[in-house]
TrEMBL record:
Gene source species: Ruegeria atlantica
Keywords in alphabetical order: Disulfide bond, Oxidoreductase, Redox-active center, Signal
Entries under PANTHER family matching the protein: DISULFIDE BOND FORMATION PROTEIN D, GLUTATHIONE S-TRANSFERASE KAPPA
Function recorded in the entry: May be required for disulfide bond formation in some proteins.
Protein name: Thioredoxin domain-containing protein
InterPro entries recorded: Thioredoxin-like_fold, Thioredoxin-like_sf, Thioredoxin_domain
Family as reported in the entry's similarity comment: Belongs to the thioredoxin family. DsbA subfamily.
Origin organism lineage: Bacteria, Pseudomonadati, Pseudomonadota, Alphaproteobacteria, Rhodobacterales
Sequence ranges assigned to domain Thioredoxin in this UniProt record: 24-219
Domain of life: Bacteria
Length: 220
C-alpha cells in the first residue's frame, strides 16, 4: 500500500483542532487528533511501549512498519509472518518489533484497541484485527467502525470499562501519533508494510526473498 509520508499525521486529523466522535448508544467519546496536536512539546514518546517478539539478543533485528487498514499488511500477517515466526523468531534468530503506522483515524483506533491489554495480548489482538480487516473497515461510518473494533477487543477478553478507557485516552492517541511520526521520519517510511532489517530499510517482498535476506544476515 503506497502512501506518502507527508500525510503522516495530517491523515489522522479531521479538523484543525481535532474533534471527538460519540459512539452509538453511549455517552462515551473517542479522540481524534490533528497534526498540530500530535507534535505538542509536552508529549513524551518514550512512554510508548515497543511491541516485540523473539530473543532480545537475536543476531537479526527486524522492525515492521504496518497499518491496520493496509490490505498488504493483512496479507503479510496472515501468510508470510506466520512462516517468519516459525522459522526465525521462535528459534531465537530474529528479534521482531512491530510499529504501527497511522495513515488514517481508523488505524489509530485499532492500535489503541490492540495496545489496550498490554504487550501480552498485543500480537493476538493484532491477528484478530487483521483477520477481520475486510469486515471492520467496511462497517460503515466512524461510529460503526469503532463499534466493530470494540467487538474485537471484547473477543480478546478486554472488559468494557477498560476498553472504553483506552479508546477515550486522548493523550495516548496524540502520543502514539507523535511516536509514529518520529519513527517514520527517522527510518524514511513511505509505504506499508516496510521493514528495517539490521538497520537497512527493506520493502515488502515474497517470503522466499525475505528468507534469503535473513539467512544472508545470519551468514548462512
Amino acid at each position: 500500500m503506497s502512501r506518502i509520508a507527508t500525510v503522516i499525521c495530517a491523515a489522522v486529523a479531521v479538523a484543525a483542532g481535532g474533534y471527538w466522535l460519540t459512539g452509538p448508544n453511549t455517552n462515551v467519546t473517542f479522540p481524534l487528533v490533528s497534526a498540530a496536536e500530535a507534535q505538542e512539546a509536552d508529549l513524551d514518546t518514550s512512554t510508548i511501549v515497543e511491541m516485540v517478539l523473539g530473543a532480545e539478543d537475536a543476531p537479526v533485528e527486524i522492525i515492521e512498519y504496518a497499518s491496520y487498514t493496509c490490505p498488504h499488511c493483512a496479507s503479510f500477517h496472515q501468510g508470510a509472518f506466520k512462516q517468519l515466526k516459525k522459522d526465525f523468531i521462535d528459534t531465537g534468530k530474529v528479534k521482531f518489533t512491530y510499529r504501527e503506522v497511522y495513515f488514517d483515524r481508523y488505524g489509530l483506533w485499532a492500535s489503541m484497541v490492540a495496545r489496550c491489554a498490554g504487550p501480552e495480548k498485543f500480537f493476538g489482538i493484532t491477528d484478530l484485527i487483521y483477520e477481520g480487516q475486510a469486515e471492520w473497515t467496511r462497517a460503515g461510518g466512524p461510529a460503526e467502525i469503532v463499534d466493530e473494533l470494540r467487538k474485537i477487543g471484547r473477543l480478546a477478553g478486554i472488559d468494557g470499562d477498560q476498553l472504553e478507557a483506552c479508546l477515550q485516552d486522548g493523550t495516548k492517541a496524540r502520543t502514539l501519533a507523535a511516536w509514529y511520526q518520529e519513527n517514520a521520519e527517522r527510518d524514511g517510511i513511505q509505504a506499508t508494510p516496510s521493514f528495517v532489517v539490521n538497520g537497512k530499510k527493506v520493502d515488502n517482498q515474497s517470503y522466499a526473498d525475505f528468507k534469503k535476506l535473513i539467512e544472508d544476515e545470519l551468514g548462512g
